[in-house]
Write a structure and sequence with these properties.
two-stranded antiparallel ribbon; alpha+beta; 7-stranded mixed beta sheet
Length: 286
């Protein structure tokens, strides 16, 4: 919820004005000639995401060759219907990511969102998804939880003002980039399943301040790009929850990678400010 000055003078009632906007996605990550999800994605996240009823689900949907559907170029019956370890024709792995399970039969992989579905990141667009281990996705959720706490504080700042209306929104610029390197030492071997997944994802976040538009109703306000109005934040007019410690720069801790090269950012963000919030994490497969 936030208020806008709808006629240049008078303030409107609380509405979900700034939730999720300026979603930008990069091209597909082509691994061994197959579209294996996204390369990079960006979005602006606003305080009104924490208004009751504004968060979504957006689960991954549809068939994804190599993940839950047969590999392209596989022989008839290969992939999900193939016998255990049977290598399909065309030099592809003998099983799918969905079939890669632990000794108890539990899934090891999911189609992980680059921009969280709860925030508005689509689940029906493969370019916002990437193969992630359950552990990597859980570590990404740790970062997302840190962002959620901050957004809640931004919302409280906007509406818990005892009659003093705020001229600015505070929110988050959020960027995810996949590694160019795959999670397999021999990237030239198209029969290795893990050669179709990124080795890690790089997550970056920045606090932003945006001057509220004047003279626009909620529907119009939600339809405009706010990216041109973004300002970096050196410090805050509120204290976000206990100045929560930022997620570690590597998750899991002490993880290493052979190549830190990532796909280009779809939106260039400024350098992290020393405001106690801005940061980044490299989330490794495990």
């Amino acid at each position: 919820m936030s208020r806008l000055k709808y006629d240049g003078v008078r303030w409107g009632t609380d509405k979900a004005n700034f939730t999720f906007c300026d979603f930008v996605k990069g091209p597909s990550a082509m691994r061994h000639g197959i579209d294996m999800g996204g390369t990079s994605a960006f979005a602006l996240l606003g305080p009104d995401l924490k208004m009751p009823g504004e968060e979504r689900i957006n689960p991954p949907v549809g068939d994804w060759p190599g993940f839950n559907a047969a590999w392209p170029g596989a022989a008839a019956g290969a992939g999900a219907a193939a016998g255990a370890g049977a290598p399909p024709a065309g030099g592809r792995p003998g099983h799918l990511f969905k079939e890669d399970v632990d000794e108890d039969g539990k899934d090891l992989w999911i189609r992980g969102h680059l921009i969280n579905g709860r925030w508005g990141g689509p689940g029906h667009e493969r370019s916002n998804l990437t193969p992630l281990t359950i552990t990597a996705n859980s570590n990404h959720a740790t970062v997302e939880g840190f962002i959620d706490k901050f957004l809640l504080k931004c919302r409280h700042y906007d509406i818990g003002n005892h009659g003093v209306h705020r001229d600015d929104w505070y929110g988050v610029a959020y960027l995810v980039q996949c590694s160019k390197a795959c999670w397999y030492v021999d990237e030239t071997n198209p029969t290795q399943l893990y050669g179709y997944a990124p080795e890690f994802i790089q997550v970056s976040w920045r606090a932003v301040k945006i001057k509220k538009p004047v003279g626009k109703g909620p529907q119009l306000a939600r339809g405009i790009s706010l990216l041109p109005f973004v300002e970096a934040v050196d410090d805050f007019p509120f204290d976000f929850p206990g100045r929560d410690p930022k997620p570690a720069s590597d998750l899991p801790l002490d993880s290493t990678t052979k190549d830190k090269t990532v796909y280009p950012a779809v939106v260039q963000m400024g350098i992290a400010k020393g405001n106690g919030f801005d940061g980044s994490s490299m989330i490794h497969q495990e």
